[in-house]
Design a protein that fits this description.
Layout: E1 2-7, E2 13-17, H1 22-28, E3 39-42, H2 48-59, E4 63-67, E5 72-76, E6 84-85, H3 87-90, H4 100-107, E7 109-113, H5 126-134, E8 138-142, E9 145-149, E10 158-160, H6 166-177, E11 182-186, H7 192-203, E12 207-209, E13 215-219, E14 227-230, H8 235-248, E15 251-255, H9 263-271, E16 274-278, E17 282-287, E18 297-298, H10 310-317, E19 323-327, H11 337-343, E20 347-351, E21 354-358, E22 367-369, H12 373-385, E23 389-393, H13 396-399, H14 405-410, E24 415-420
Parallel strand pairs: 2-15, 3-14, 6-7, 10-11, 18-19, 22-23
Antiparallel strand pairs: 1-23, 1-24, 3-5, 4-5, 7-9, 8-9, 11-13, 12-13, 15-17, 16-17, 19-21, 20-21
This protein binds uridine-diphosphate-N-acetylglucosamine.
Length: 422
Amino acid sequence: MDKIVIRGGVPLKGDIPIAGAKNACLALMPATLLTDAPLTLMNAPRLSDIRTMTTLLQSLGAEVSTLHRGKVLALSSHDLTSERAEYDIVRKMRASILVLGPLLARTGRAEVSLPGGCAIGARPVDLHLKALEAMGAELDLRDGYVHAKAPGGLKGAVVEFPHVSVGATENALMAATLAKGTTVLKRAAREPEIVDLARCLRAMGAQVEGEGTDTITVQGVSALGGATHRVVTDRIELGTYMLAPAITGGDVTCLGGRLDLVPAFAEKLDAAGVSVEETDRGVRVSRKNGGIGAVDVATEPFPGFPTDLQAQMMALLCTADGVSHLEETIFENRFMHAPELIRMGARIDVAGGTATVTGVERLKGAPVMATDLRASVSLILAGLAAEGETVVSRVYHLDRGYEKVESKLGACGARIERVDDE
Ligand code: UD1
């Protein structure tokens, strides 16, 4: 199994290109199921999660080919052959549930394995199911699968989510495009990935309004056509690499980055003493003068501070001057990186949903273990700042969400390499 070895202490300087958003792409790919015409996605990231979604769509009969070294995905669901998303694929990636809405809307039937738990909490799919039920789906949960039917087709409905869910909003939005009548999604997620999906659906002929606000209105149409769509920039990859110069005291431009993708995160960096500037090339980040100051952070749905940047921000605050509090409000059990950072000399106390971080002057390299995608990259950031050698194992988590980490950081001077353990 691969490991990543980092010898820390180098201030990173240079440019890091930011890829298309994994989470946007994972919602855009199932949109192929809504139409028999081709869908082309440009600026796709080259990640194992994208390959998992490819395998899932192919198991349903969709054709998925990759062009331009994987950066373009050509999808066609002209001839679907199955309505069943098998456990063996779904258990690898929760986003697999996103095929449920579009399959049901197009074919009137779907059987999708329930995703089960994951490292960062229970993560149920009840909101996805309730939204589809409100649109007239008949659901039956048996043998670990959702068996869904909509014999007369889905019908427009008013769906008020009890709290914000990105995935449930995406599933309901896709299903609503082919439902009869008007669907109103209230307390809808406002994430840039939702906006990107809505834009792509509109290019396919869907009638969608209000994306980016908490109320999305969809006028159902009888069929959708094809489209070519460019995947939005990955705001989580952007935020992660913005932290690399912040934690090492360097100067990096994240190419293609935009501050409107990370508003609350950029504000917190600024408050912590980091200069964040949007230029015509992207987002340039360096320290203002000297050290990092302590800040308090609470994760929130967009436009608030993203839960997917909480672990990486914690790595930065481990070296801040003073005491910071990080409150996780989206997922329970999302502090598994804390014990690993503590092995590197960090001072962190976790109580309930809040981590109290007392800054130390310097982190120290250590062997550490990645527990999930964002935790793994937080350990890499910590390793870049630490004295001595850090070895991060279980990096397959990293490969789900970050392409070419070693070469992107290495190009800015980081001493980082991937080694094969066996
Ligand atoms: C998406 C992102 C993930 C990110 C998360 C929150 C993808 C592929 N993944 O995940 O990286 O961390 O948004 O920004 O886009 N919930 C329910 N019932 C449901 C659905 C969700 O209770 O049916 C809860 C979840 O357990 C969680 C909260 O709602 O506590 C938000 O989850 P949600 O926004 O749905 O996250 P995902 O779409 O799974």
